[in-house]
Amino acid sequence: MWKSATRSLATAALVSAPKLQDVVIIGGGPAGLSLLAALKNSHKTKHLKCTLVEGSNLDPIRDFGMDPPENYTNRVVSLTPKSVEFMQEKIGSWDFINLDRIKFYDGIRAYDGQDNSSRISFDGTTTGSGVLAAMSENINIQSSLISKIEQLNDEIIDEEEDQPAIILDNTKVIDIEDPLNAQHTHSHSDLNEIDPSAGDEALDWPIIKLDNGEALQARLLVGADGYNSPVRKFARIESRGWQYDRWGVVGTIKMQFEDYRALGWQRFLSTGPLAILPLTDDNATFVWSSTPELAELLLKVDEVIFPHLLTAAMTLEEVDLQYIYKTLQNNPNDRSVLEDISWRLSKKDISDLEENYPLPVTELVPGSRARFPLKLSHADTYMAPRIALVGDAAHTIHPLAGQGLNMGQSDVGHLVQALEKGVDRGMDIGSTLVLENYVADAWPSNHMILGACDKLHKIFAVQWTPFVYLRGFGIKTLNSLGYVKDLMVQTISGK
Length: 495
Ligand SMILES: Cc1cc2nc3c(=O)[nH]c(=O)nc-3n(C[C@H](O)[C@H](O)[C@H](O)COP(=O)(O)OP(=O)(O)OC[C@H]3O[C@@H](n4cnc5c(N)ncnc54)[C@H](O)[C@@H]3O)c2cc1C
Ligand SMILES: *[C@@H]1O[C@H](CO)[C@@H](O)[C@H](O)[C@H]1NC(C)=O
Ligand SMILES: *[C@@H]1O[C@H](CO)[C@@H](O)[C@H](O)[C@H]1NC(C)=O
Ligand SMILES: *[C@@H]1O[C@H](CO)[C@@H](O)[C@H](O)[C@H]1NC(C)=O
Description:
Belongs to the UbiH/COQ6 family. By secondary structure, this protein is an alpha+beta fold. It contains 16 helices and 20 strands.
């Protein structure tokens, strides 16, 4: 009796004793995995003890590397050449990407829904490489990052010197405590027992409580934990922004045939921008920003009708579209719409269609439609003592310029750079002196991109005629003003 009682007490004490780590990353999305891989791939930071905690199961992502699904998944992003270069040079994860499922494309043709003569082209030639950006599934990126982390772990010979990266998936963070404020914290002597080398230092390290009963204590806690970021809330960092009252409806589609043009297409409709972006062969993906009512309809419309509706939305006049929506609102399976659409399309000038519009959409991959609420948010800062935020935890953006994931890559680049500098100078990497460099490098450019996309959204969501006229005029002027356009291309391509 007596013996077993002490043993269970001892076990309980062991379980609740926080494990000290240099860096704890919450979130196994693209941002969190990129940070872990980049830290472990840098000879300046690879000695740091790093643990990543992810609430969901990462097995499907691990499996993707060996056995990818037949069709494209519907979470797809546009990667800038800068992000690709970062994954090639700094993270070294690009070697593990499934290149058969990456589509490099050369340009975007954007045009106005209410004035089809106002057009603007963004081309990769301005960036020097000839490539504007690359389309990739989120899961392809995440899977390549996990493979890179596993490779780096496998290469470790001396586990004392080079710490393997630890990924705890299926593990949720349920609470974060500040040991200086919390009531039931471990006494000073407790901490010294766990790791005497940590000394007094660990006294102010945040304690991360996991749903498996264990706890971690971090010299630096990084929130890569997405829009609702528990880390940001713990750090009491204010995040400002608004919901757009718009949804992004996405899905995987087939075009009539493979388009040699390798272009993305974007039409600014009054309900929001609609983009069709190329994937390999005749595969493509769409992002359709819509009002709540339209988004609901788009998810309901019969799978046979949907591809034709998408073609119509890229091509027909907005009044015609409104009429088609109304018919479908009465009955989302009303196939008489198909005849109506083909009749309206038949009245268009074929050579204009071939030259200035995407190919017709022929198929929707069954079950591939999904919707996401669109919002803009930006944290006031990306740091607090022993805390840093990266990716969607720090900012969310309208998908119209496809910048969300790329901004996260740029955050990770700046954070790793700041940490390397800190290590070089023998500083505590959780200290505000080190983290201030990160915020100074990352925040202002993100703020600029967020502002520009927000303004674009607002300009194009307006239906008031004089404004539409001005906006068309604006697009044309912009298109002829090479200098201004180059700046925009530089933003899209990240160069
Ligand atoms: C419709 C749409 C289209 C988009 N198109 C593009 C595009 O073309 N180009 C582009 O660059 N970006 C695009 N984005 C944005 C892009 O998808 C996101 O920016 C990106 O996924 C953010 O990555 P992240 O790692 O920061 O966050 P997330 O992917 O949100 O990852 C956060 C992770 O944290 C985990 N987590 C959260 N809380 C906890 C907890 N308590 N415990 C444990 N784990 C936790 C979550 O499980 C999640 O895995 C688009 C977004 C949308 C909605
Ligand atoms: C894309 O389409 C082609 C031909 O239709 C197909 O062979 C290819 O495997 C597809 N790729 C993916 C990932 O679906
Ligand atoms: C472009 O707009 C004009 C005027 O509204 C219209 O007559 C023409 O058919 C449109 N072209 C296409 C391809 O929609
Ligand atoms: C893949 O896409 C094709 C073409 O849309 C479809 O016929 C097939 O059922 C899809 N396969 C799966 C597993 O979803």
